[in-house]
Every structure is written in structure tokens, then in C-alpha cells.
From TrEMBL:
Highest taxon in the source lineage: Bacteria
PANTHER family the UniProt entry points to: ARGINASE
Lineage: Bacteria, Bacillati, Actinomycetota, Actinomycetes, Pseudonocardiales
Annotated SUPFAM superfamilies: Arginase/deacetylase
Organism listed in the record: Actinokineospora soli
Protein name, entry field: Arginase family protein
Family statement drawn from the similarity comment of this UniProt entry: Belongs to the arginase family.
Keywords: Hydrolase, Manganese, Metal-binding
Amino acid sequence: MTTIIVPFHHDERLPDDSLPTTGVTLAPAFPDGDLWTRLTALHSAVADNVAADTAAGGRPAVVSGDCLVALGTLAGVQRAGVDPAVVWFDAHGDLHTEASSTSGYLGGMALRLAMGSSPVTEPLGLRPLAEARAVLVDARDLDPAEEEFLRGSAVTRVPVDAVGADVLPDGPLLLHVDLDVVDAAELTGMKFPAPGGPSAGAVLAAVRRVLDTGRVVAVDIACPWHPARDAVEAADRARVLAELLA
């Protein structure tokens, strides 16, 4: 498994020690233009690397600072001729549109963007993900607009403990894990902490059940956290990442 490190939160370069793992680090030059233009360049680089590894028979793992990078991961797998369903572990829904978001935070739109066209998905050549091909895991912190969308959508939403072969779509799978899915009291320092979540052990066990299907074609891990406050916090993050990538 090739690990592709994307040391960015949106288009902001993160400190070198923000993503405590080893692999191929991507740091493309950004073109002039607005945020969408810069994100397209970044996600295209991700897609190119994911496509090459997938086409060669690998199972790439992408580690980044935000959930938007999953768009590049999905586009890359599609470029290699694979159309996966998506299993999305997250404390949040990431189901906003630009119209429904009260904050304008693009990371809160990532899964919804994967299911439709936008200024970043169209240049990537990303084929929209069908709602019925998306499984949202946990998502304990939803805004009213996201709750309303889910009531009328075909997206499957399950708690971490319910993840198993019976709730997963058929065919290949892209596994996305936003590490804020872990309870904020255990994995600290998140940009958007959500209390009352599952333990790291429960999340890892659910991830293993998805991997045990043998159908995961790529793994995408988002680490939207502030710089580690001390060695203990840094070690906790490195341990969880290592276990996910093992």
C-alpha cells in the first residue's frame, strides 16, 4: 500500500510534523486564481498519483489535513477504471452546499460535492457518486440542513458499531476516515471537536470490518487537527494513524 501524504488544509500548507506518517509527499505549485482553482490543482495531483497506484494493482492510502482531498482520491480511483461506493466515517455529515452552509467552510461540503458537480469536481472529471452508493458512519454532529437532506436521500447512515458487510454497497469501496469521528476526549486537538463519539478502538474495529471485505480499493484519511500541544498528543495521533495504515 502506497501512502500519499497531502500536507494541506484546503490550500494552506501544514507544518511538516502535522501528519505523523511516512510516504510520498505531494506539494504542487498552486496556480494564480481563486480557492477553487488552487484546490483543483491540488486534487488533480492527488488523483494522478492515486490513479497510477490503482492501475498498477496497489491500494493507495491518502493522508491529508481535510476531507476535501477525498474528491481527488475518488477521482483518481475512477480514472483507473474503478467506480467505488464510499464509506464515510466522520463526526460530521459534510453534506452542506454553498447555499445551505452558514459558515461557508468547504470541508463541510465534501461528501455532498462528491455526489454532484461543482467548480472543483468538474475539472477533476469526477463522476458523481450516487446517493445509494454512500454510507455515512457516525455523523453525530449534523446541522438542520444536513438532517433535512438525509431524510430525503438514499444515503445510508449507521453508527460505528453497526458497520458490517450487511450495510455496505456491493462492489469496490473507497474508505474515508475523518479522525474527528473518534471521541474528542480521546483524540484531542481537533479543529471541529465533537463530543460523545466512539472510542478509537471501536472506530479501528469498524474500519477493519470494512477492510476485511477485501473490496477496499483506496483509503482516505483526514486529520483536521491543530498542531500538537505536547509530545503525548503527538504520540496519540501517530499511534492511531499507524493502526489505520497497518
